[in-house]
Amino acid sequence: MLLCQATLAHSALLMQSNKPSEFAKRWLAEINFSTVLSAVIAIGIAYGLLLAIDNFTDWISERVPRRFRLLTKQGLPFLRAFVLLVSIVYVSNLFLNLSARNLFALTGTLAVALGFAFKDYVSSIIAGVVGLYEVPYRVGDRVRIGETYGEITDYGLRRVQIRTPSDSLVSVPHSKIWTEPIINANSGDLEAQVVTNFYFSHAVDVAQTRQILCQTAYSSKYTRLDLPVVVIAQERPWGTQFKLKAYPMDARDEFLYQTDLIQRAKQYFADHAFEYPQSGYLQGPEGGAAVGE
Question: φ and ψ at 20, to 5 degrees?
C-alpha cells in the first residue's frame, strides 16, 4: 500500500511540475498518423482473430471425435487471453514509453485507481484468471452456480455464459467463485451422471423395481454401458423413492436421456400394475436430474 501511495505521489508531482514537456517526454511516445493507423490495424486484427478463434473452435469441436469435443473447447479461454494480452501490450507500446521504471509506476497507479473505481469488475477479471489455473469449470462443463444450472457455453474475460435447461443464456461473473460453491457434474469429462427419481407406494417390490430400472438404463441407446448403473431406494413418509443413477454417452443429452429412461420405465411399470403414492402425500421438488445428488 505504501508503495502504491509513493507511486501515486511521484506521478502527481510530475504532472504538477513546471515542465509538462518532461512529463510528456517521459511517458508518451511520438504520436503521428502512422502510430494511430498501426493501433487501429492491431485492434482490427485482434478483433478478427477473436471472432475466427470462436468460430473455428465451435466448428472443429463438432467434427472431431466425440471424446475430444470438450478438450477442443477448453482451449478457447487461453487463446482469447493470449490474443488480448499481446494486443494490449502492442497498442500500449505504440503510445507509451514502457520502460521498466515507467511500467512499474503505471502498474501501481492503475492498480490503485482501478481497485477503487472498478472493484467488482476487477475482482471478476482476477477470478477469471485464477479460474484458468484452478479450473473450477471449463467450457462444456455442466455446473450449478448458486441457483443457476446448465452447460457453460462461453468463458469470457469477466464472466461465463451458462445455457440452462430452458435454453436461456445466463451470464455469471467469475467473482462468484469467491463466494459461491461451484458444483461441477463432469469436470471436463464427456459424461456426467444423471439422477432420475421414481416414486411408488410402500407396498412396492423393491428387488423387482431395482431390476426393472437397471434394465431400463441398459436398454437405452444413450447409456454408457462401461460405466456403472446404480439404483438406490429410500423410504419416505408417503412411499418409497428410487434414484436411478447412470451415465449418458454425452453430457449434452442429459434431458433427452432422462426422458428416455422415464418413458421406458413407465411402460414396464404399467405392465406390472405398480402403485404410485397418493398425490396428497407427495411433496417437494424431488423429481428430475440434479447435479450433486
Answer: -60, -25
Report the DSSP beta bridge partners of residue 240: 200, 235
Beta bridge partners of 241: 199, 234
pTM over 0.90: no
Query: Grid coordinates representing 292?
Result: 450433486
Say whether pLDDT at 262 is over 90. Answer: yes
Backbone angles phi, psi at 207, to 5 degrees: -60, -45
183-211: pLDDT as tens digits: 888 887 777 889 999 999 888 889 999 99
Domain count along the chain: 3
SS (H, E, C) 32-72: CHHHHHHHHHHHHHHHHHHHHHHHHHHHHHCCCCHHHHHHH
Alpha helix (H) ranges present in the chain? 2-16, 20-27, 33-61, 69-74, 76-95, 100-117, 119-134, 176-179, 206-218, 254-271
CA atoms within 13 A on the CB side of 232: 10
State whether 236 and 163 are in the same domain: no
Site of grid cell 461451484: 182
C-alpha cell at 92: 500500449
- Does any domain span residue 285? no
Residue given cell 517526454 in the structure block = 25
pLDDT exceeds cutoff 60 at 2: no
Q: Residue 233: give the domain boundaries.
A: 194-271
Q: Is the pLDDT of residue 15 over 90?
A: no
